[in-house]
Write a structure and sequence with these properties.
The complex is a heterodimer of chains A (206) and B (292). Helices cover 63% and strands 5% of the residues of chain A. Chain A is mainly alpha-helical. Chain A has a two-stranded antiparallel sheet. By secondary structure, chain B is mainly alpha-helical. Helices cover 66% and strands 7% of the residues of chain B. In chain B, helix 2 crosses helix 3, helix 4 packs antiparallel against helix 6 and helix 7 packs across helix 8.
Chain lengths: 206, 292
């Protein structure tokens, strides 16, 4: 037997509108247009936050704060860059704030102890799509994975952001520079430093 | 180019961020220098190890974020009401005017909140508006009523609803659930077409990924293959493109069309994962990595 939840009518014409029209409609208060913009970009936003912060709870906070900021300031968006670049700028700023606060607190966010005393990994609520299809993943030692996470945690927030945007989002340096409001050259230097730190720390494993 | 220069450029060589001229110089040096070639292999292995750590948010997490945002936006829309009250007071309007304005504001907030909170099926559409005079109006709303039904997967009404949900449910988690339930009936033409439509047109990356996975057993069929190749060439999500490479090599699928598509892809693909997956398949086919 199967229970079918929430079968709904088609979403309407918004899915077929181009992005500029959606933005203009949302700037005029059209909430459905705003919701369509959110749906078009929110998986990417959540993925950046989840990978950077490694905590679904923190990623949820970043997601909400980012889109609330977009909602409040969409009126001021003047199309002088792409919406995606503008959104990336907002998300990366919020993530940088989180990472800086975490650096100060030196917290270890991933493992939580339940009321029963049992430890569980918060990251269980994230799906790693490639895990099953990548045999290399299966043989990577726990030690290497732990070391990668440790080195990521030791990078400066900006180095980590640039490194992950390149490795996890596949973004080019020019796009990373735009998202961070800095030059391509500055992003390049940041990426180089981060990679060299990784090489120095993981050299014995690879 | 000497080893020192090569070492300096190696990082950006693997990121594909060098000029064509420098890239060629690095490649020429790597071909001639076993030590730098070994260094390149180690750095590539490091990249793969790091990228294996990438996490993809679950649809459950995405769904809960969307719900949280909708609730927060409702509060955002409500809060300015306090400011309106202040504005009306400072403008010296009478208590009666303020109450009227307040009612209008509340109605507006109600409509806003409803639009944000409800799926289109729950939304009350305004069917008719009739001015009654004396500042009153009669509005006829047409409600879509939520209902629930249970049944076996092979029942026609359940099957039809799942097909409809897979194509039109606004929540991507519901579309994924529907595809999961339908994938056991790949022999059904409608199921097959629904999966192909989801893979081709669904705006959600997770839904397209699930459709792609479901179509794996049909990867050798020509019309399915045509859609898979189109996804490989044009899907906006790199993980979907990389996974399409994998699905296209499934079972007895013919390889002749794939080599050409992958070689063409290598000319313009920027994502490292997709490039690696394409290169792996091309090498396994003993095909050259690019067309010249």
């Amino acid at each position: 037997m199967v229970k079918v939840d929430t079968i709904a009518l088609p979403g309407g014409a918004y899915e077929f509108m181009d992005e500029a029209s959606l933005i203009r409609a949302a700037q005029h208060g059209d909430q459905e247009a705003f919701a369509t913009l959110v749906r078009a970009h929110d998986q990417g936003v959540l993925r950046i936050a989840l990978n950077l912060l490694r905590s679904p709870e923190d990623a949820r906070d970043v997601y909400q704060e980012a889109f609330l900021r977009v909602h409040r300031s969409l009126q001021h968006f003047r199309f002088d860059c792409s919406f995606s670049t503008w959104l990336h700028r907002i998300v990366t700023n919020i993530c940088l704030d989180h990472l800086r606060r975490r650096k100060v607190r030196r917290e270890a966010p991933s493992v939580t102890v339940a009321a029963s005393g049992q430890e569980f990994d918060q990251l269980d609520s994230a799906v790693e799509l490639r895990a099953e299809s990548d045999p290399q993943r299966k043989v990577l030692s726990g030690e290497l994975r732990g070391r990668i996470q440790a080195v990521l945690g030791e990078l400066t927030p900006r180095e980590r952001l640039v490194f992950e945007m390149r490795h996890f989002e596949g973004m080019r340096l020019r796009a990373i520079g735009e998202a961070l409001g800095t030059s391509e050259e500055a992003a390049k230097n940041c990426l180089f430093r981060a990679t060299q730190k990784m090489r120095a720390a993981l050299g014995e494993f690879v | 180019m000497n080893c020192l220069d090569c070492e300096k450029d190696l990082v950006f060589y693997l990121y594909g961020e060098l000029s064509a001229e420098t890239e060629e110089a690095v490649e020429a040096h790597l071909d001639a220098c076993p030590a730098c070639r070994a260094s390149e292999s180690r750095l590539s292995a490091l990249h793969r190890a790091v990228e294996a750590e990438r996490m993809e948010p679950s649809l459950e997490l995405l769904s809960s974020c969307r719900q949280g945002l909708a609730a927060a936006l409702r509060n955002e829309v409500r809060q300015p009401a306090a400011g309106w009250r202040q504005w009306f007071a400072s403008a010296g309007l009478s208590a009666w005017s303020w109450r009227l304005a307040g009612c209008a504001a509340l109605i507006a907030v109600g409509f806003f909140a409803a639009r944000l909170d409800r799926s289109p099926a729950d939304f009350s559409a305004v069917h008719q508006i009739e001015p009654l005079g004396n500042g009153r109006v009669r509005i006829v709303l047409q409600d879509a009523v939520s209902r629930e039904l249970s049944g076996k997967l092979d029942e026609q009404r359940v099957h039809s609803l799942l097909l409809s949900a897979a194509r039109t449910a606004p929540d991507p988690a519901v579309r994924v659930d529907s595809l999961d339930l339908l994938r056991g009936r790949l022999g059904d033409l409608e199921v097959r077409n629904t999966l192909l439509a989801a893979l081709r047109d669904d705006p959600d990356d997770g839904v397209r990924m699930r459709a792609l996975d479901s179509l794996r057993p049909l990867a050798a069929q020509s019309d399915v293959r045509a859609v898979l190749l189109a996804v490989l060439r044009g899907d906006r999500n790199a993980m979907v493109r990389a996974h399409a490479v994998n699905v296209l090599t499934h079972g007895d699928a013919p390889a002749s069309d794939l080599a050409g598509a992958l070689q063409e892809l290598m000319q313009r693909e920027e994502n490292l994962d997709v490039r690696r997956e394409g290169q792996r398949v091309l090498r396994s086919m003993n095909a050259s990595l690019e067309t010249f």
